[in-house]
Design a protein that fits this description.
This protein is α+β, with helices and mostly antiparallel strands. It folds into three domains: 275 residues, BirA Bifunctional Protein, domain 2, CATH 3.30.930; 61 residues, 2-Layer Sandwich (Herpes Virus-1), CATH 3.30.40.230; 107 residues, Rossmann fold (3-Layer(aba) Sandwich). It is 32% helix and 28% strand. The protein contains 15 helices and 26 strands. The strands form eight sheets. The protein has a seven-stranded mixed sheet. A five-stranded mixed sheet has the order 23-22-24-25-26, sandwiched between helices. A hairpin with a 6-residue loop joins β5 and β6. α2 runs antiparallel to α9 and α3 packs across α10. The radius of gyration is 26 Å and the shape is globular.
C-alpha cells in the first residue's frame, strides 16, 4: 500500500486529517484524529499497557505538558535540541539543511555537525533551493522548543519536547512512595511538542505528537545480573548488520557484543514482541545500532527500531542508553539528592529508554495492514486493535429483521465497539466494514426468525458460520481475545 492510499483511507473513513483544514493559514505539522483514528489509538494504548507496562510491572505516570525553564536547562534541550536550517536567498523559503543534504547524497547526515560543516556540505554538493533553484544562505541552528509565558510576568516555560523529563524530576519522590527497588521501569503515554522546521508526511513528522516512553532505572554494575533475561534468552532479535538483517538470539547477541547487556537485550526483546502483536510485518522491521555521530546528545549508545514503508525506513522507537546524564544534571541544578540505595550501595541510577512514536506507529500499522483485493479493500488490523470490533446488519430492511438486528446491537454496544448498518446491499455493507478493519460481522436473516441463529462472518477469510443469537457476546469476546474462527 502506498502513502497516498493510506491518506485517502484516513481522510475518507475518519482516521485522521489536517488540523484547521478549512483555513488557508492552517500551520503544517498538526493533525487530528477522527472517530476511527481515536479508537485505534486507544486500542494501541491498551495493548501497550497490557504487553509492556503490566507485563513488566512498570510504574505509569502522567506528567505536565508545560515545565519550567530549569528542567530544560538541566536536560540540555535549550542548548542542544536544535535543527540546522537554511533560507533561500531568492524566495525566502526555509529548509532543513540536513534533509536537503541527505536527499542529494542519499546518505544519513549526523545530527551533531557544526554550522560550518553544514555550510561546507551544501557548497560541496552544490545544493540549491528545491523550490526555485535559488542560492541558499548560511546554515544556522534553530531550537525546536515551544516557549510559553506563564502569568502576568510572562515567566519562561516550555511545552515538553519529550515526555520523559517529568519521569526524571519525579523519580526521587515516586521511588520512595511506590516503594521501588532497582531495577524499576517508569512509563508515560502522552503528548510532546516539537517546533519542526518543515513537518511533512502526515503522522510521520508532527509538531504535536504522542509518545509512549519507558525509562528503565538500574544500577549499571548489575546490568548483566538481570533475572528476567532468562525469559528471552532464546528469543531472536532482528538486528541490522553490514550484510543485512539477521535474526539473532538474545543470548548470542549479548555474548557476541551485538547488544551490550542482558538488561538492554531483555527490553529490546519485549519491545519487538509488542510490535509483533500490533500487525507490523516483522520481515520489514529491524533494530539498527546508531553510529556515534547519529546519537542524541544524551545517549552513550542507541538502537532505533525501524520499519520499512512506502516512504522508506521509518524510525518508530528510539532506544537510548542515557547513562546517569539526566539524573545528575537535574540533581546538580536543583541541588537535590537524586541517589537511591540498591541493597547497601548508594547509586545515582542509570537509564535505558524506549521512546516510542505513537502517531507514526499508527501510520505504519495502517500501511502494513491494508490490502487491495479484486472485489474489495480490506484493512487486516489485528482484532484487538480494530476501531470497530463487530458490525450488526439485517439482511434486508423489512419483515422485522431490523428490529431483531437492533436488539442484538443493543446487547453488544455496552461491552464492544459495535456498529449497526441497514443501508445498501449486504455485500456493500461488508465492504464498508472490511475497509475500516472490523474483524467480525453479525447478519440477521430469515432463518433467524425460525431458529434464533445468525450468520457470523470473518473479515480476512470471508468465511461464515451459524451461531445462536444468544451466544453472540460470548463468541465475539472469545474471538477478540485470540480465539480461532472455525467455519
Amino acid at each position: 500500500m502506498s502513502y497516498d492510499e493510506v491518506i485517502r483511507l484516513a481522510l475518507e473513513r475518519g482516521f485522521f486529517s489536517p488540523s484547521s483544514e478549512i483555513y488557508s493559514d492552517a500551520p503544517a505539522g498538526f493533525w487530528e484524529y477522527g472517530p476511527l483514528g481515536l479508537a485505534l489509538r486507544r486500542r494501541y494504548q491498551d495493548l501497550w499497557r497490557r504487553e509492556l507496562v503490566r507485563r513488566d510491572g512498570m510504574v505509569e505516570i502522567d506528567g505536565s505538558l508545560i515545565m519550567s525553564k530549569s528542567v530544560f536547562t538541566a536536560s540540555g534541550h535549550l542548548q542542544s535540541f536544535v535543527d540546522p536550517i537554511v533560507v533561500c536567498k531568492k524566495c525566502n523559503t526555509m529548509h532543513r539543511a540536513d534533509r536537503l543534504i541527505s536527499e542529494k547524497t542519499r546518505q544519513p547526515i549526523a545530527e551533531g555537525l557544526s554550522e560550518k560543516e553544514f555550510d561546507e556540505l551544501v557548497a560541496r554538493h552544490a545544493i540549491r533551493c528545491p523550490k526555485d533553484n535559488g542560492e541558499l544562505g548560511p546554515v544556522r541552528k534553530f531550537n525546536m522548543m515551544f516557549r510559553v509565558g506563564i502569568g502576568p510576568s510572562d515567566e519562561d516555560a516550555y511545552l515538553r519536547p519529550e515526555t520523559c523529563q517529568s519521569i526524571f524530576v519525579d523519580f526521587p519522590r515516586l521511588y520512595k512512595v511506590m516503594r521501588c527497588r532497582l531495577p524499576v521501569s517508569f512509563a508515560q503515554f502522552g503528548k510532546s511538542f516539537r517546533n519542526e522546521v518543515s513537518p511533512r508526511q502526515s503522522l510521520i513528522r508532527l509538531r504535536e505528537l504522542y509518545q509512549a516512553e519507558i525509562e528503565v532505572f538500574f544500577n549499571p554494575s548489575k546490568a548483566n545480573e538481570f533475572p528476567k533475561f532468562d525469559d528471552v534468552n532464546d528469543y531472536e532479535l532482528r538486528l541490522m548488520s553490514d550484510s543485512g538483517v539477521k535474526s539473532v538470539s538474545c543470548r548470542h547477541a549479548t555474548v557476541s557484543g551485538l547488544v551490550p547487556t542482558h538488561l538492554v537485550a531483555y527490553y529490546l526483546a519485549i519491545l519487538q514482541q509488542f510490535y509483533e502483536k500490533t500487525g507490523i510485518d516483522m520481515q520489514r522491521a529491524r533494530f539498527r545500532r546508531l553510529e556515534d555521530n547519529e546519537r542524541a546528545f544524551y545517549s552513550q549508545f542507541a538502537f532505533d527500531f525501524e520499519v520499512q514503508t512506502s516512504l522508506g525506513w521509518t524510525e518508530l522507537v528510539a532506544c537510548n542508553y542515557r547513562t546517569d546524564y539526566d539524573m545528575k544534571r537535574h540533581g546538580g541544578l536543583s541541588k537535590k539528592d537524586v541517589s537511591v540505595y540498591d541493597d547497601e550501595e548508594k547509586v545515582i541510577p542509570h537509564v535505558f529508554e524506549l521512546s516510542m512514536g505513537v502517531d507514526r506507529t499508527l501510520y505504519c500499522i495502517l500501511e502494513h495492514s491494508f490490502a487491495k483485493q479484486k472485489e474489495r479493500n480490506v484493512l487486516k488490523l489485528k482484532p484487538p486493535l480494530a476501531p470497530i470490533q463487530v458490525g450488526v446488519f439485517p439482511l434486508v430492511n423489512k419483515d422485522g429483521l431490523p428490529n431483531k438486528a437492533k436488539e442484538i446491537f443493543d446487547n453488544l454496544k455496552y461491552d464492544f465497539d459495535a456498529t449497526y448498518d441497514d443501508s445498501g446491499s449486504i455485500g456493500r455493507r461488508y465492504r464498508r466494514i472490511d475497509e475500516i478493519g472490523t474483524p467480525y460481522a453479525i447478519t440477521v436473516d430469515y432463518q433467524t426468525k425460525e431458529d434464533g441463529s445468525v450468520t457470523l462472518r470473518d473479515r480476512d477469510s470471508m468465511s461464515q458460520k451459524r451461531i445462536s443469537s444468544a451466544d453472540v457476546p460470548h463468541v465475539v469476546k472469545r474471538l477478540l481475545n485470540g480465539g480461532v474462527f472455525s467455519s
